[in-house]
Design brief:
Number of domains: 1
CATH topology: NADH Oxidase
Order of helices and strands: HHEHHEHEHEHH
Bound molecules: flavin mononucleotide
Structural class: alpha+beta
Number of helices: 8
Strand content: 5-15%
Length: 192
């Protein structure tokens, strides 16, 4: 797997990636896991509304909740995420807490919080693979506490590693080159 950066970036950002193969035998320490969500907590957000919410389960300590989150994923994601020792769901509160008006950047802010979480994970040797392939109706039924929150993503968290139980075609995905659009395409107007 190759990483080709056009310009230098911080090593932690360069090291982050989204593995399919998780080492299912390697559990995640509770203190590390708390720090991941603490990092998410300190993300910036519009009006400091902090619209992100998470449901998280460490299979080691709560396999029932972990199974519920696994059942909230589409089949294609379940096939590999079943080996992640920690699973989470990312939800947003779609209205500002203070005004009740729609928060147009709620999902953006969840993304920022999950990015913070992911970088904290990378610093601790952990990996995070986010998913949009979730079953929102199942999540709303399974977790009544989600109320009017909008389910947006799932997160598989654990240590990347060889996993002989993965189907060959899925395992191969971890060997693909990591490609990105060139800077010239994403900077649609620029005077760098
Ligand atoms: C919001 C979001 C949703 C994603 N949804 C899925 C998904 O449902 N299934 C999956 O296998 N990967 C999913 N991914 C992982 C992306 O495919 C991955 O981040 C992308 O290919 C870039 O690879 P990298 O994270 O290793 O740099 C998702 C990533 C993000 C950020």
């Amino acid at each position: 797997m190759k990483n080709l950066s056009e310009h230098s970036i911080q090593p932690l950002l360069q090291a982050r990636w989204s593995p399919y193969a998780f080492d299912s035998g390697k559990t995640v320490d509770a203190e590390d896991l708390s720090s991941l969500f603490e990092a998410a907590r300190w993300a910036m957000s519009a009006y400091n509304d902090q619209p992100w919410r998470y449901i998280v389960a460490n299979r080691k300590t709560d396999s029932v909740l972990w199974e519920k989150i696994l059942a909230s994923l589409v089949e294609g994601n379940r096939s590999w995420a079943q080996y992640a020792p920690v699973l989470a769901l990312g939800l947003v509160s779609p209205e500002f807490e203070k005004t009740g008006k729609p928060n147009a950047t709620a999902m953006h802010d969840l993304g920022a919080a999950s990015a913070f979480l992911t970088i904290e994970a990378t610093a601790r040797g952990l990996a995070v693979h986010q998913m949009s392939g979730i079953l929102p109706d199942v999540i709303r039924t399974t977790f009544p506490a989600a109320g009017s929150l909008q389910p947006v993503t799932a997160l598989a968290i654990g240590y990347a590693g060889a996993n002989g139980e993965l189907d060959e075609d899925i395992a191969m995905r971890d060997k693909r080159d990591r490609i990105r659009k060139p800077l010239s395409e994403i900077l649609i107007h620029s005077s760098l």
